[in-house]
Structures are given as structure tokens and as C-alpha cells.
Amino acid sequence: MSVVDKFLHYVSFDTQSDEHSTTAPSTQKQLILAQELVKELNELGIENATLDPYGIVYASIAPTAGKENEKAIGLIAHMDTAGEMSGKDVKPRIVKNYSGDDIVLNEQFSMNPEQFPALKAVIGDDVIVTDGTTLLGADDKAGIAIIMATLEKVLKEQIPHGQIWIAFTPDEEVGRGVENFDLTKFPADFAYTLDGAEIDCVDYETFNAAMAEVTFTGASIHPGEAKDKMINAAGLAVTYASMLPQWAKPEHTCGREGFIHLLEMHGECEHATLSYIVRDHDHDLFEHKKQLLLDLAQYLNSLHPDCCQVTLREQYLNMKDYMQGDFESVNRAKAALQACGITPRSLPIRGGTDGAMLTQRGLNTPNLGTGGGNYHGRFEFASVQKMEKMVDVVCQILKGE
User: What is the architecture of the domain spanning 3-206+318-399?
Assistant: First the structure.
């Protein structure tokens, strides 16, 4: 089965994760794809493929003769799709030899390179798109398809390689992809997540990331008798949000500029909540942003005692800061790209990957692209040719020549 056929098969599985769930995995439907991947790995002859209680698939392939002393390399992709839009009943369509004109998804939605510059990179390719009613699932089923196609090619063509470790994780989109990842089951020297967009990128610099839940407690009383008595929690939330610097919003930032992003707000007179994510590549600026949230709460509490509380939860930290100058994994990937005729580059990711958390735990795990774009929505797409090229790149990484 080709990488494209694998991809089209995987996007038929509804694997949306749930940020409000406390189970692992966060949704049981992710296990259906996990079980399918175990089955396919077994069919390739990889009999040690297992699905653990947390929804993580692990497998490995022993080194070929003469490669026993080569570096052990891990390959990782996540199974879940984002919560912003449904991934159920995906109806993909292939636009052959994309011309760069408008791609009509349905009567209401279309896209072109002027609206979505990422499409410029796939002009001339066969581009897989949605029908405009769901996301596609290229993030990260393109990564899964590339890994599975690579393993099939390595085994069928008897490509020389060292030890290969494979893992497919749930819940990456809700920041819990590797919270239960067992490194004793994955003793690679270094690894790669295949979870990026442009295939020429080898990403190893991520945001530092945290979530903040800000709660407001008010006092309700009839508005006709409210003078000097009412404390309006919803009003306090509005005041709090308005005191944050406007330049710190994501819609006003780019490159290495961090942000404080309001995700959700709920409120009434007696109780209100604001949910934020905090991001910055620079650790000191990251800490400053978190402190700003705490300082604003302290100010409001000076006006109305105990009216505001901030709960901060760290999500992941900048991968680069934990690589400790060891760029063997990055250099190997760049050499593989060059061998496949691609000029590599590395840019700071305005986001994070499972690899950021794994690197923090001691397993250097840079991120590779899959050839997709416009992730998390109806305008998502994937390139057939770029997925095929990435199979060649990953095979080259495993060969190490």
C-alpha cells in the first residue's frame, strides 16, 4: 500500500482528542486507530508491536547484519486530531497537478495561495484537501503514513539500518501526548517526531509553554441596591483581560515574539473564568509573562480581597535548551535531506511537539515535516509528492549514509 493509500485510510478514523477529559487516552476512539496500527505492524512482520493501557503503540525492528553498533533511532507520530473542528466522516479529495488557482472545497468555502501562502509550496503537486465540512487530519496522520510506508519499504527492500524504535501517541493536540510515555520501552539514542509542515525543516527550537486558569469570585446583589456592595466577577474578568498588553496577543506577534492568548471566557456576577496559554521562546520572557498574570491578580485582590486566583500549569519547555549542544540528530536529518536533493533549514517553531517534552526528559527528538499545511481546520491539505519524498528522507536517515 502506498503512502497516499495509507494516509487516506488513516484519515477515515475519527481520533479527535478531548482537552477536558481526565482519562488516558482522552477519548476511546483513538484506540481504534491504535489497534489498526498494531495490526498493520504485525502484518509487516513486526510481531512485537503492542498497545499499552494509555493508548500508546510501541514497536521495534532489530538492526540488519553489520549495523548492530549503529545509533538506535526512534520514529514518532501522534494519532489524535485537533479539537477546533470535527475529524469525523472526513471526505478527502485529490487535486491533481495543482495549478495555484482557487481550490473549491464546497459552495461556501474555497482557498488559494493569496489567502493561504502555504499552498505556494505545493503548486504542481497532487494536493489532498477536504470537502470543507471537516479538518483533514494531516496533522498528524501524514506523519503516521510516512512512518508506516518507510517501515514497509525498509523491510521489503532490505535497506540496511540500525535498531529502529516506533511509537504512535494519543493526545498530542491537548498537550498530553507523552505524559505516559515509557522511555524504558523506547531506548533510542535519539528520535524524530514527524509532525511538521515544510519538508525542508528540521525543527529543534520550540516555545516554552504554560496554561493559566484565572478565576474570579464576586458578590451578587440586586442591581438597584448594588452601590458599594456588588462585586461583579464577569466585570472583573473583563478588567483583567483589558489590562494585559495588546502587543502580547498572538494576532500581533510573529517569529520569536511570544504571546498571551485568551482561549476561553465564561462569566456571571458571582463567578467567572478566563483560560490563557502563555508562549515564548526566551525563558526569561516566558517567566515574565507568567509573572504578569500573577501581578494583575494581586492588583485586583488589593481592590477586592480574594476576588482573583491564577493557576499556572507548565506544558512544555524549549527543546533547544535541553539538547545540551548535542545536534547529532539534527545533523543526521539535514544530511539525509541533502542526500535527497533538499536544502535543509531550521526555524523556531511557534508551537511545540511531543519531542519537546521527550527532549526535556533526556531523549533528543527534533521534528520533521510531512508536506501538509493549514492544520486544525477545513483548509488543511497534504501533498502526495512531499509525503513520498519524506519516505525517502526517513529511509536515508535510517541508513545513515
Answer: 3-Layer(aba) Sandwich (3.40)
